[in-house]
TrEMBL record:
Keyword NADP: yes
Organism field: Apophlaea sinclairii
Full protein name: Probable magnesium-protoporphyrin IX monomethyl ester [oxidative] cyclase
Keyword Plastid annotated: yes
Sample GO molecular function, one term: magnesium-protoporphyrin IX monomethyl ester (oxidative) cyclase activity
Keywords in alphabetical order: Chlorophyll biosynthesis, Iron, Metal-binding, NADP, Oxidoreductase, Photosynthesis, Plastid
Catalytic activity as recorded in UniProt: Mg-protoporphyrin IX 13-monomethyl ester + 3 NADPH + 3 O2 + 2 H(+) = 3,8-divinyl protochlorophyllide a + 3 NADP(+) + 5 H2O
Known pathway: Porphyrin-containing compound metabolism; chlorophyll biosynthesis
């Protein structure tokens, strides 16, 4: 049976949709890491070693497992594969282009980005092969040419990608450890690969942590404290809203989506506190209360979107829900953060 091709020409993008990014490549080329060369050379050696070169190999279990998934779970699982593949492919494109643009000005960074793009391409390819098991695939060539690209300045790329890679590590390793203890919930063999997968994510986050530390103005100034706070809130809210709409999928693998997200937020916040000058006060009594309210409003928005015909009243209701979510995000942002005491110097 011929596979259907999934592309984003027929998909509606939202604020929670995985995005493709571009940046100021000339500014990237001016990054000075000369005072921190040893750390980057050590990271580069890690990437060259390519620990996962032989780890992403499919076996016979893939052919049999797809038949065991019931229809509701199958649809949610395919959506999970599609979103993950899109996010990994987005990283591949950005890292590949950064590698090409930095070859002359900063060969160490260029090779680091090249090898990270290798990892992201491997992940995206593995996910796309899994989608083939369900007679679907992402048209990656179409995505490359037709997907809208969001511009982020280099410093925003550093903040957002560091957190994205770090939160990815905690998400993958938490699911892997859970399924190690409860193998009856491993509904598909791809979860067996999450341990090696998350190690790639961790090495990538180490690289972006080194980039941030090499540019102290991105961590030591009062402006940087505001931006760190902003990206922590943004990443946590985005994950929370995405997962609350897919709680049934997490139930299928034996997880409570809310408890899972709370654990991921705490772990990521703790990891970020080793780099960022501030951490969010996730123990504040209103922190998760605000997130829960955001999630409930987001689910109401989704229920309105599923209706075929939208009345003026429904559109007004949807707009009011968006405003409530925005207001709650602002209240989350205004919760007094925790000072980590971290400062970074250009000279060790």
């Amino acid at each position: 049976m011929k596979s259907n091709i999934v592309n984003n020409n027929t998909k509606t993008e939202t604020l929670l949709t995985p995005r493709f990014y571009t940046t100021n490549f000339e500014e990237m080329g001016q990054i000075d890491i000369s005072h921190n060369t040893q750390e980057f050379e050590a990271l580069l050696e890690e990437f060259r070693t390519d620990y996962n070169q032989q780890h992403f190999t499919r076996d016979k279990e893939f052919n049999s497992s797809k038949k065991l998934l019931s229809e509701p779970i199958k649809g949610l699982f395919v959506e999970f594969l599609e979103r993950s593949c899109t996010a990994e492919f987005s990283g591949f494109l950005l890292y590949k282009e950064l590698s090409r643009r930095l070859q002359k000005t900063n060969p160490i960074l260029a090779e680091c980005f090249l090898l990270m793009s290798r990892d992201e391409a491997r992940h995206a390819g593995f996910l796309n092969k899994a989608m083939n098991d369900f007679n679907l695939s992402l048209d990656l060539g179409f995505l490359t040419k037709n997907r809208k690209y969001t511009f982020f300045s280099p410093k925003f790329i550093f903040y957002a990608t560091y957190l994205s890679e770090k939160i990815g590590y905690w998400r993958y390793i938490t699911i892997y450890r859970h399924l190690e203890k409860h193998p009856q919930y491993r509904i598909y063999p791809i979860f067996r690969f999450f341990e090696n997968w998350c190690q790639d994510e961790n090495r990538h986050s180490d690289f972006f942590a080194a980039l941030l530390k090499s540019q102290p103005n991105l961590l030591n100034s009062w402006q940087s404290r505001l931006w760190c706070r902003f990206f922590l809130v943004s990443v946590f809210v985005t994950m929370y809203l995405n997962d609350c709409q897919r709680s049934y999928f997490y139930s299928a693998i034996g997880l409570d989506s809310r408890q899972y997200d709370m654990q991921i937020i705490r772990k990521t916040n703790e990891s970020a506190s080793r780099i960022f000058p501030i951490a969010l006060n996730v123990d504040h009594p209103k922190f998760f209360k605000y997130l829960d309210l955001c999630a409930s409003y987001s689910c109401l928005v989704s229920s309105i979107k599923t209706k075929k015909h939208h009345s003026i009243v429904q559109n007004i209701h949807k707009s009011s829900l968006y405003l409530r979510i925005f207001w709650l995000c602002l209240k989350l942002y205004m919760i007094q953060p925790i000072n980590t005491g971290k400062t970074w110097n250009t000279i060790k």
